[in-house]
Amino acid sequence: MDGHHLILGKLTDYLTGDVVPDTHDERYRQKIARLLVDTLGYDKPEVIARRQLIVSAGEKKAGISIDFSVISGDKIGMLIKYGPGSLTTRHTPTLAMARLVTSYQVPVVVVTNGEDAESLDTVSEKVIARGIDQIPNRDQLTGIVSGYKFTPISNIKMEMAARIVYCYEIDGACPCDTTVCRLEDGR
Fold it and tell me: What is the Cα–Cα distance from 22 to 6, expressed in whole angstroms?
C-alpha cells in the first residue's frame, strides 16, 4: 500500500499513455478523462491531467494536483476536481483554485466524485449544472469562454484564495495522503 490508497496494480493513463498506479480514485479519474474526450468532444491535448499547483499560506508552501484543466481556445476554461464523497464540501477550495492556476479567474469549475458532478460559474459561485452528464461539453465551454472577461486577479484575491486552498487541501489532508506535497512547513 502507498499512503492511504490501495494499489491494485498499474494502468495506462487514457490521456497521456503514462503508466500510473491503479487505485480506486485513479479509475474514477480515467472514467472522467474518457467522458471528456469520448462523450463531451474535447481533444486529448485540450485536457491537461494532474496539473501541479503550488499554494502558499504565510510561511507554509505545498503542492497539490488539479485533476483536469480544460483548454478552450488559448485559455483554461474549466477545472475539474475529483474527490470521493460529498460534492458540496469541494465547492470552496475548487472555486479558490480557479483564482490561482493562471493570472485570470477560470470561468467554470466542476467538482465530482466520479458518479455525480456539479458545475459552477466561478463569478457567481453558483451551481450551473448538476450531474456528470451535464458537465459542459466542448461547444458549451467555447460559448462560455467567448463571452467571458478574463480580467487579472488581484494579489489580495490570489493570497486569500491560496489560504483557502491550503486550509482545505493541505491542512485538511490525511497525514498519509501522498498526493499532497508539503514544500515548507514553517514549523
Answer: 8
Alpha-helix runs per DSSP H in the chain: 24-34, 91-97, 138-146, 155-165
pTM value?
0.88
**H helices within 98-154, ranges in order?**
138-146
Beta bridge partners of 82: 112
Rounded to the nearest 10°, the torsion over CA 17, 8, 87, 35 is 30
Task: Identify the CA nearest to 129 among candidates 115, 139, 119.
Answer: 119
Q: What is the domain-level CATH number for residue 154?
A: 3.90.1570.30
Banded model confidence at residue 187, pLDDT cuts 50, 70, 90 = very low
Match 512547513 to its residue by C-alpha cell. Answer: 185
Residue 122 inside a domain? The answer is yes
Question: Contact at 8 Å (CB) between 72 and 146?
Answer: no
Instruction: Count up the domains in the chain and report the number.
Output: 1
Indicate the DSSP class of residue 132.
Answer: G
Q: Is the pLDDT of residue 172 over 50?
A: yes
Q: Give me the amino acid identity at 23.
A: T
